[in-house]
Design a protein that fits this description.
Blueprint lengths: L4 H31 L9 H13 L3 H12 L2 E4 L7 E4 L2 H10 L4 E2 L2 H11 L8 H11 L5 H4 L3 H13 L10 E4 H18 L13 H21 L6 H11 L5 H27 L4 E3 L4 E3 L3 H5 L6 H30 L3 H15 L6 H6 L1 H13 L5 E6 L3 E7 L5 E5 L4 E5 H4 L3 H4 L35 H18 E6 L8 E2 L5 E2 L4 E6 L2
Parallel strand pairs: 2-10
Antiparallel strand pairs: 1-2, 3-7, 4-14, 5-6, 7-10, 8-9, 11-14, 12-13
Helix pairs in contact: 2-3, 5-10, 8-9, 9-14, 10-12, 12-14, 14-17, 14-20, 15-17
């Protein structure tokens, strides 16, 4: 059977595939040779996975990455749960390349969309290309200086925070409280006011109210997003398939949480659309001396689309950043202040000397160096987004990390992921000195400290966080006002060291359990 169709079909399949593979191999070989690329150190796949599982269980996953970079090198290659090889780096030059100089050669990639789409759909933090450009153009005006300098909004939410604190202990005379959940509620309230033109006022909402249920569901869904993604990649896919098989179409708690988030936000959007059709966009807000437009993100968005699903997804994308990162920062700030009475006294003295008991102005906040240093140092050691990744859209090259000395360029194949760990990057002793692991805010007074791409709490390049000044202003204002209301702080957590709680945004695993002494 010389002309049997089976061998012929095999030949027609195998030969073109082999030609394609050889062409790719030759193209990559030529690109690597042209740039002098050499392979980076390689970490065993199974050792990588085993260490990660153990570290996650011990809540030391972030510290594990610091130890790994110290042992293997600042750039190396390995694989996690998936089947594809990933490049890991904390080299500032490589991060600059990914986020800025070769921005067009990298994208968020499909994995990011798969990870987040069940909760937030497609928006500024999941989209690439034209979709991302459109989303970013809508968001940018929300964070103009005029809007950021409007501190009256922050003051109203500070008052709600103060009102939500428990009464003083009859034994210590201090207010004993976990500030972390209160900060997450406060930043939810301020973020929804900016995004929707109306606050959820979750600090005022009783347990069981729609906004309280929204907050709990939003937190749970963010926590479980990573678990679901883990069970849908590489050799873990069978576990994910079994999970779905046993569910037999039934909803799990994650699905119910997403439905709760969607229903509360959808109702708010429906109400807004009804009002918008009656009044038109951009109402005026009267200030003390001038009239200025109150820029509300949803106001601008409905002029481009009135599709409730698109509006919901875009708002959820911004809400994660606008609420969670600032709340994480504030929680870590007061976590550290409770362990450093000397630092509390130093920062509070600056507050007293600058504004006394008066609410600070935007200009006064900018002049408070001790407050600024405190925030910068917390963002350095405890960045709310401690790791990130990009996916190469074309065959390209990273400037460093290859060869025995780590100084040769590294080849990155199209479709290959490059992960960078901000938590480990911010602890590089060659950037921040031999005490890089030490919490020392005064380091930011040193004019020679110029970390550049070694310090990226808000990312960098074209995708740099638009809300960074808004976040820093809200955090600064909160620190100042609480120091005006309280004369001392003590920790009520028996453990001294910070422990991680890793989700979409990382926070303190044990919260921010403190005691506050009211100002006499």
């Amino acid at each position: 059977m010389l002309f049997s169709p089976v061998p012929l079909i095999c030949i027609l399949i195998i030969v073109p595939t082999l030609v394609h593979v050889l062409r790719n191999w030759w193209r990559l070989r030529a690109l690597a040779a042209a740039h002098g690329c050499r392979p980076p150190p390689r970490l065993s796949r199974f050792k990588n996975i085993r260490q990660q599982m153990a570290a996650l269980t011990a809540h030391s996953w972030l510290e594990m990455w610091c130890q790994r970079y110290a042992a293997v090198g600042t750039t190396f290659e390995s694989a996690t749960v998936g089947l594809d090889s990933i490049i890991f780096t904390i080299d500032p030059e490589n991060i600059k390349c990914i986020l800025a100089t070769k921005f067009s050669s990298f994208a968020l990639g499909q994995r990011r969309r798969n990870l987040l789409s069940p909760l937030v759909g497609t928006g500024v933090f999941t989209a690439d290309g034209k979709g991302w450009e459109h989303s970013r153009s809508l968001i940018r005006p929300t964070f103009t200086k005029v809007r950021i300098a409007d501190l009256g909004m922050f003051e109203s939410h500070i008052q709600d925070l103060i009102a939500a604190l428990p009464p003083c202990s009859p034994y210590s005379g201090m207010i004993e409280v976990d500030l972390q959940p209160l900060f997450f509620r406060m930043t939810l309230d301020s973020a929804t006011e900016v995004l929707l033109g109306r606050s959820f006022h979750s600090l005022r909402a009783p347990a069981g109210s729609p906004f309280h249920r929204f907050m709990e569901a939003f937190d749970y869904a963010q926590l479980k997003v990573h678990t679901r993604d883990l069970l849908d990649r590489g050799w873990m896919k069978p576990a994910g398939l079994l999970r779905r098989l046993f569910r037999r179409g039934r909803k799990d708690r994650f699905d119910e949480a997403c439905e709760t988030v969607n229903s509360v936000l959808d109702e708010t959007i429906r109400d807004f659309l009804g009002e918008f059709k009656g009044r038109g966009p951009l109402q005026e807000k009267t200030g003390n001396d001038t009239k200025q437009k109150l820029y509300v993100l949803l106001d601008e968005m409905v002029q481009s689309t009135q599709d409730p699903l698109e509006l919901r997804y875009e708002l959820l994308n911004v809400l994660i950043a606008g609420r969670d990162t600032t709340a994480s920062l504030l929680s870590n700030v007061f976590f550290m202040l409770a362990r450093r009475p000397d630092l509390w006294a130093e920062v509070r003295l600056e507050v007293q000397q600058t504004v006394g008991h008066q609410p600070p102005t935007y200009e006064a906040l900018r002049d408070m160096k001790a407050v600024r240093n405190l925030l910068f140092e917390c963002l350095r050691l405890y960045p709310p987004v401690p790791f990130n990744s990009r996916c190469a859209t074309t065959d390209t090259v990273l400037p460093r990390g290859g060869g025995p000395d780590g100084q040769s360029p590294v080849l990155v194949r199209a479709g290959q992921a490059v992960n960078y760990h901000v938590y480990a990057l911010h602890r590089r002793s060659d950037v921040f000195g031999p005490d890089a692991d030490t919490f020392r805010p005064s380091r930011w007074n040193d004019p020679s400290l110029r970390p550049g791409w070694g310090y990226i709490p808000f990312n960098g390049g074209p995708r740099i966080c638009l809300g960074q000044q808004f976040a820093l202003t809200e955090a600064s204002y909160t620190v100042v006002r609480l120091m005006q209301y309280f004369s001392a702080i003590e920790r009520r957590d028996p453990e001294l060291q910070w422990k991680e709680h890793v989700a979409l945004v990382t926070k303190s695993r044990r919260g921010t359990r403190v005691a506050l002494m009211p100002e006499a």
